[in-house]
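Duplicate of earlier report; G-protein coupled receptors family 1 profile domain-containing protein input re-posted below.
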Amino acid sequence: MPDNNFTGVIQAGFDIIHDNKDSVNHSVTVTNTSMKALHSSLTTIFIPTVYIFIFIVGLPTNAMALWVFLFRTKKKHPSSILMANRALADLLFIVWLPLKIIYHFNGNDWTFGEPLCKVLVGFFYGNMYCSAIFIACISAQRYWAIVHPLSQKLSSRVTVCVCVCVWIVVWVLTVPLYLYDQTVKVNNLDITTCHDIIRSNQTYIPVGYFLTMGTVGYVVPCVVCIVSYLLTFLSLRRSITDSSRSKKKRKAIVLMVTVLVMFLVCFTPSNIMLMVHYSLLGAKIPNNVYVIYIVALCLGSLNSCLDPFVYYYISEEFRGYVRNALMCHHPLTEPMSVSYSAVKTYTNSLTPPTNTTSSSTPTSSPTSTPIPALKVYN
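Output:
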């Protein structure tokens, strides 16, 4: 039997939604404050405009990156496997944005039905957290390649297994999003919202889900990124430097700082707001941080269109791959090195090779003998 006394809670947390009068459609009536939020230019103009920019920029750049990693390189290395999965997560996040754009431009009125709303929400959050986790994996892989260049390398098979496990874990964790109503009919606005309103008798599901995903999908990757880049930075500072290498090392450090800052700026505000909102919601404390959260989430989504330029297109090798792909050249077999490849990494066990002479090779002075560099591959 349907519940004749549905009470909803707007996720924006402005007010408690009044009791509904429609037991058949399970609709609700919202307060004036909530009405203003749902019809504000912030949610109906600004947010969809940002999503349009993300879609226009992110779709071709991530698609090109994925194509290069999958089809233009014959030999798959751990770094390229991780970055291919990173690009795939961004791409799956972006391809669903047109539905959100239409929804917001339409006055936050969802016209595509409950099943498609659930799929949109599942893909939106699932791929967002997948993206954050793969950033952490790439950070850890780069740390290991730079700081421990002579140690056991991560094999491609193990890397594939890690990626599969990440996808499985994240998508299993999105199952709760399909277990409660994502669409709610709003009587006094004559609209149907998608994920912006939940009923009070269903709050325990999203509260548990988002607090769990905030921890697994943000807190853990954030700690991994900070620790990995901090240890890498300290290692680079201790490495041997000379006038020819100092500029390259500075470039690598700038890249590390850029990646870390971009991760923190894009993911931190929205996830903090998310966990604060759902913690208060779980404690049945009214709050008004949800609108701040969806704006932060929208701006944080810029990460998906900025990543290709930070991770891929700053690399001269990757740009060469793209040029070869566009000119239909044969796939390349050499591994790609990005900015960190310019940094020479040494250990105490490494010594410069002794100079050998032969009748066909002129003798070189010991001071001119180059120290072999360890090329670090992404």
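The first helix runs from residue 32 to 38.

Merging into the original ticket.
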